[in-house]
Amino acid sequence: xxxxxxxxxxxxxxxxxxxxxxxxxxxxxxxxxxxxxxxxxxxxxxxxxxxxxxxxxxxxxxxxxxxxxxxxxxxxxxxxxxxxxxxxxxxxxxxxxxxxxxxxxxxxxxxxxxxxxxxxxxx
Length: 123
Fold this sequence. Notes:
Blueprint: E1 9-15, E2 19-22, E3 28-30, E4 34-52, E5 55-66, E6 77-83, E7 88-104, E8 107-118
Antiparallel strand pairs: 1-4, 1-6, 2-3, 4-5, 5-8, 6-7, 7-8
């Protein structure tokens, strides 16, 4: 079964810059982060709250499905997930917690990325 028709959202992947050299004093020089657009599907796994003396923090956990043509690592971030009409589905920047490549008959079928974001919002 093809996954491409299930990927109803679009997201921006932020790829961090790497070390590109050293300056005259021997300090590392880093390149600028780059971005790329991917087709995906975002589903909410759970919403939890963490309570302390300051109030409550709302924590969101999501799962993002992406096609086999994309590649990911733990240093990347996901930003601004929108649907095909341009409506914002998930605003903000999300960290990749886990990456699961899913295989079908020994071929890579798709990726499942577990994302998290702590809003820090007081409820």
